[in-house]
Amino acid sequence: MSNQKVNFRSQEVQDILNHIPGTFLRWGSTTILFILFGVLFLSWVIKYPKTLEGEGILTTTTLPTIMHNHHSGYIKDIYANEGEYVKLGDRLITFHEKTDNKAVQYISELLNQIENSLLENSPLDIQFNTDDKAFGSLRTEYNELKVSVIQYRLIDYKHHYNQKRQLKAKENELSNLDKNLTRQYLLSKQNFESAEVQFNMHQKLLNNKAIALSQFEIEKQKLIQAELSIENAEQAKLQNKLALNEVTSQIIELKHSFQEEKTTLKNSIKAKIDDIKLKLEDLKHEASIISPIDGKVTFLRPISEGTYLDDNIAIIAITDENSDKQMTVKIPSTGYGKVKLGQQVYITLNNFPQNEFGLLYGRVKRIGQIPNEDSYNIVVEIPDELITSFERNIPFKPNMHGSVSVIIENQRLIQRIFYDLTKVINNL
């Protein structure tokens, strides 16, 4: 059959060509044609965006102030409600105090008494409370201050006092000796002058041959002895003077050492007072959380009166009502060059699933210029009201995490199909 030529003029062929197709076949072809044109039209109308994925944190332009509890303990009272506006200095939460109020008052008065005594250079006659159990967390600082004050008070009765008394006694002894040596020196000088007069007189008599040589030699020996006596008195006086100066220097050095030690102890007491004052201030914050700014309260964890919290737990965030909402997003460096200002952004918050709550919309507000390892940071502007694509209103809480899709190219579906098809063909 394949080797036979088809005779288009034959009766069979003419019957086939002249036969009119059925209604179903005619309208089926038309329907397929319309569907094809419809698909082409929809692929031109429908846009299939090209996105760049990233992770972000929802916050405000003025970063919220996060409040932590500095010490562990049980919550006593809660003064603020979720979303309530508070002012600077408002008390938000109080905790059960660990240190007795009477102990705090006693320590405060004690510090004032010590400071006044140091300022007036008066003796530290301080009576310390022997029972330190009531001081709680201030117990260590209180005992350290107590030791320093006792050391300062007893400094005069330590080795300085005995050593100073011994040196003073020696100084008085050498001073009295100096007076005696001075008198001996003056007597020796008078004896020398008298012996010198006798020697000169006997020398004249010897020259006039009025006396014997032996008598002259006796007077000469007396003069020599008187001269030696002066030299010995001068030497003894000089040695005593040196010893007296040495003792005086030791007294001055001891006094200087005493003042140094006293100043060191005084500075130590002042430092310990400052430490206790800071600890007292911390106790005030330990017993309560106070708002450091004006703003709206957001609780970061569920709490109630009687709740126990470990130390350094983030409890409350204070946000500025006038601050715009934004999202800081980390995007990979591979697509960084395609990100432009004003591009639309789709946001899905981790705590609000997309299939239930929908998407949030935003636009690229700022693009970071400096890379962080293999990523860049961009800032996305978000409307004040967090209304999703499902018309759901999401309550704002600072530092909510979410995934972000930046629309870097809003291509038509047909363009995307031909682009992907071309890419496949080029890879063959």
Brief synopsis:
By secondary structure, this protein is of the alpha+beta class. It has helices at residues 11-18, 23-45, 101-119, 139-153, 159-207, 213-287, 354-357, 413-427, and strands at 47-60, 65-68, 73-78, 85-86, 91-95, 288-290, 295-299, 308-309, 314-319, 325-332, 344-349, 360-367, 375-381, 400-412. Strand 12 and strand 13 form a beta hairpin.
Written overview of the protein:
The protein is an alpha+beta fold and 428 residues long. The chain has 4 domains: 11-45; 47-63 and 315-427, Beta Barrel (Elongation Factor Tu (Ef-tu), domain 3); 66-90 and 291-309, no CATH class; 103-286, Helix Hairpins (Orthogonal Bundle). Helix content is 49%, strand content 21%. The chain is built from 8 helices and 14 strands. A 6-stranded antiparallel barrel has the order 1-10-13-12-11-14. A hairpin with a 7-residue loop joins strand 12 and strand 13. Helix 3 (101-119) packs antiparallel against helix 6 (213-287). The longest helix is centred in the middle third of the chain and has 75 residues, at 213-287. It is elongated and about 205 Å long. The model has no long low-confidence stretch (mean pLDDT 80).
